[in-house]
Amino acid sequence: MAGQLLSANHAAALAAALAGRANRAARGFCSGVYPITPSTECMELLCNQEIEKGEVVRVESEHSAMAVCIGAAASGARTFSTSSSNGLALMAENVVAAALLRLPVVMVAANRTLGPPWNIWADHGDTLLLRDSGWVQLYCADNQEVLDSVLCAYRLAEDRRVLLPVLVCQEGFVLSHTMTETDVPSQERVDRFLPPLELPGRLGATPRVMGGIDAPHTTEVHRAQHHEAMGRVFEVYREVQAAFERELGRRPADPVVAYRAEDAEALIVSMGTIASTVVRAVDEARARGERLGAVRVRMFRPFPADALARLFRGKRRIAVIDRNLSLGFGGVLWGEARGQAEPGAIVQGYVIGIGGGDVRPAHVAAIAADLAARTAAGAPVLLEAGT
Amino acid sequence: MSELTATVASAPAPARAAPLLRPGNSNCPGCGMSMALQIFARGIEHRRVQLVVPASCAAVMAGPFPTTSLAAPVVLSTFGAGAAVATGLARVARLNGDGTRVVCWAGDGGTYDIGMASLSAAAERDEDVLYVCYDNEIYGNTGGQRSSATPAGASTTNTPAGKLEEKKDILAILAAHRVRYAASLSIAHPQDAVRKVRRALDTSGFRFLHVLAPCPTGWKSEPALGIELVRLAVRSGLYPIVEIVEGRKLVINHEPDFSTEALELYLSLQRRFQRSGLSAERFAAAIAQNWRDLRARSGRIVPADREG
Ligand code: SF4
């Protein structure tokens, strides 16, 4: 792979610019952006790109950044934004609005813990705050995946069977500021992969109201339709993977990625970059003769329940690692994954790396040892990663 | 009026612009915003417009899905994001050269209060957006609470004894942004209003129109008296009819007679000023001060019409 050295922030910005230019034959590209660490450099690089038939609007808040995307997407343009942490929290009202209007906005979040107290490092608490906002959510494990996911996100979001916004999540600093060799496809290839957007029912000259008043029954219908569209994401995503492979020469990862899981006696489930650390810990455990396997949840919404249930079949011991904490409950992924295990299985939740603590293979080994020693699952275990 | 009558008599009847607000809307009878929309429609004529309406009575007005009483394409936005959503529409309209005029139609709460940040930012960026604030001086849609547009002395559901603070000077705030064009419209002076709507629609960059919109529900006034109330507000000098170009050149379009009678009538025809018992005298001092400022800033008085 003849790649460039790129941070995930820059990979995301280049992908957005490529996707934006690819819509020049249609309604163009319009992005609303506002800086916040650690997503700032994504916004900066985007503002320095020449985008044919494209605009980047430097607004006064994250709330307005998403509002610009809403207006532009309603008008049929391809749109993009990026944010982190409290920026996403401020934006939340319009994040929900973009989804409920069924607009195919794509956003990249550089994950950062919510403050105060202020902390600029990573956990998934900010994007999981938006768990129920009606967006598709993808969690990435490396920079190439961030770039590829942004491109896939447009094709998925704009598919008429889906028409939903997509949030691509990459951990702040761990990915956002770490440069790795990343392949950036040519504009011609992206043009082939991303057809011009023809948004059905975009705002034109015909009188109609987008977002009009709903009575209780029509709200139920709209929610059900939204939920059904979420359900179609897996099928459409498979087609997106095939098209990406055809046009760009590599296959984007599945919604759930298993590693040495088939013959494993115990599984470790995680999201984001911790999954890469888990893979290393699995190799080390296997070298010691322990039958450990790993599962990475890449697509968190819609939740890949069936895929997880298949992987969990026959497994008696499952550890779920969360880089987030739903206060008063435990890890969010643990809460959702444990329902897919077979009755009687020990599904133990571990929370680690909140606020950016560095999660190392030794932590994963300790988790595997704790899991092996258990006769039953207990309350979520809160581990300190330290530095 | 005689000149006008003569012109109309000798020419074919002018085509009446299609109403922007169609039957079946959910506005209260006598809503000043309904009247403002009809005047606005006369200004639109053949122009292609898209509306952004943040949460407000105007958002409810369109009626329940899938119907709409608005004869234009509309995005209903979140409360504080009207100007930013309009920015997105306007940028894409420009990218595609389709000549669409993007209009944000917002209430006073969405303008003076929660929407102030996005309004100020869109004005500062000089977005190609016409922002219209229909000002009923109250959060009509949520039952009539104080906004920063509510005048001192007016009772609202959360200031029952009458609001203590003065109304914000929204035109001065927008003028301080040096917006291309800012003006106040009176629904009692439709010729001047239609002229301003046309001018605002045909100017590019950020434009702002302010419309005093009586709200019988919140003002506790007779639905039939809306236009008369605005006429009294204009006559008394309480609601100056002006336009400001590039934030500097202020033109007074209508000279009030500053009559105490008009001011007293304006206050007494609404029950919202009863509790505080705020007198016309108290208002008169503020009016006089405001007009000294206006005259200092204006070059001349343009008798735009003789409607008042
Ligand atoms: S509450 Fe007031 S502003 Fe709202 S529709 Fe009724 S009269 Fe109009």
TrEMBL record, chain B:
<protein>
    <submittedName>
        <fullName>2-ketoisovalerate ferredoxin oxidoreductase subunit beta</fullName>
    </submittedName>
</protein>
<dbReference type="GO" id="GO:0030976">
    <property type="term" value="F:thiamine pyrophosphate binding"/>
</dbReference>
<keyword id="KW-0560">Oxidoreductase</keyword>
<feature type="domain" description="Thiamine pyrophosphate enzyme TPP-binding">
    <location>
        <begin position="68"/>
        <end position="211"/>
    </location>
</feature>
<dbReference type="Pfam" id="PF02775">
    <property type="entry name" value="TPP_enzyme_C"/>
</dbReference>
<dbReference type="InterPro" id="IPR011766">
    <property type="entry name" value="TPP_enzyme_TPP-bd"/>
</dbReference>
<dbReference type="InterPro" id="IPR029061">
    <property type="entry name" value="THDP-binding"/>
</dbReference>
<dbReference type="GO" id="GO:0016491">
    <property type="term" value="F:oxidoreductase activity"/>
</dbReference>
<dbReference type="InterPro" id="IPR051479">
    <property type="entry name" value="PorB-like"/>
</dbReference>
<dbReference type="GO" id="GO:0044281">
    <property type="term" value="P:small molecule metabolic process"/>
</dbReference>
